Amino acid sequence: MIDFIIDENKCITCGLCAQDCPVGIINMNPKPGIRKSREKLCLKCQHCLAICPTAAISILGKKPENSLPADGERPTYEGMTRLIKTRRSIRKYLHEDLDQNLIQELLETTAYAPTGHNYNSVHFTLIDNKEDLDLFRDKIYAAIKKAGEAKTLLPQFEFLYAIQKVWENNQVDVIFRDAPHLLIASAPKKNSSPLPDCLIALSYFELLANSHDIGTLWNGMLTWVLNDIDPDIAEQIGIPKDYTVGYGMVFGKSAVKYPRAIQSEGLSLNRVNLTKK
């Protein structure tokens, strides 16, 4: 049941919902409706709810009055350009925890990120306190040490053993950079695009976090440990076994400030024009 409900008093039979439905299952007769036999085709995208000009459509238990209006304030093009161009990978963090409510708000907004086939099933694993992150760090470095001593590291990951030694001998944390918080995105392997879904979600999170002056760092080394060196660790922290670990990201208050953007090496662009061939 997708609970497609029309408010007869508000519906003006404009047909926008039927025209915009990605799978074309809404019929006008004269009001919009969906036959029971076609409900299983619904992508649950809620486009019908979003596009209705008179807020006449409810679906999946969602009511239009509970949706954020689209005509409010938005970031300017110049503001978004500055945010993207001045984003930096942060490798030095203050030893301060972020406000828990702010982290929750960031994640709830990130959950709006698009996913393949509209599955909306990206799973976020959050470590938001120093004690748990310290224990998790120990697990990661121990896994690298065990694999390094057993000589089971793949050639492309052998450098991690040297990084583990730096941690063991000098307490220099190259992998986590002493960041106070960690976010890992994963998604069901059976989905059509689990890895891209995770990367898109974390990209949304990063830009949103940066808009609050929160530093972030994409953590490839952690991701390799969870996927290739000791996948059992992922399950130990609550990531389902049948999920793909997309990527990890550390974040927190930056201990450094960059007064200006870098200068790009330039755009690599392949512009296709088949009509002139």
UniProtKB/TrEMBL annotation:
Q: Name the Pfam families for this protein.
A: Fer4_9, Nitroreductase
Identify the keywords attached in UniProt to this record, alphabetized: Iron, Iron-sulfur, Metal-binding, Oxidoreductase
Gene Ontology molecular functions: iron-sulfur cluster binding; metal ion binding; oxidoreductase activity
Domain 4Fe-4S ferredoxin-type intervals:
2-31, 32-62
**What CDD domains does the entry give?**
nitroreductase_FeS-like
Please give the PROSITE patterns that the UniProt record associates with this protein.
4FE4S_FER_1, 4FE4S_FER_2
Question: What InterPro entries does the entry give?
Answer: 4Fe4S_Fe-S-bd, 4Fe4S_Fe_S_CS, Nitroreductase, Nitroreductase-like
- Sequence similarity: Belongs to the nitroreductase family.
Protein known as: 4Fe-4S dicluster domain-containing protein
Q: Which organism is it from?
A: Ancylomarina salipaludis
Species lineage, top-down? Answer: Bacteria, Pseudomonadati, Bacteroidota, Bacteroidia, Marinilabiliales
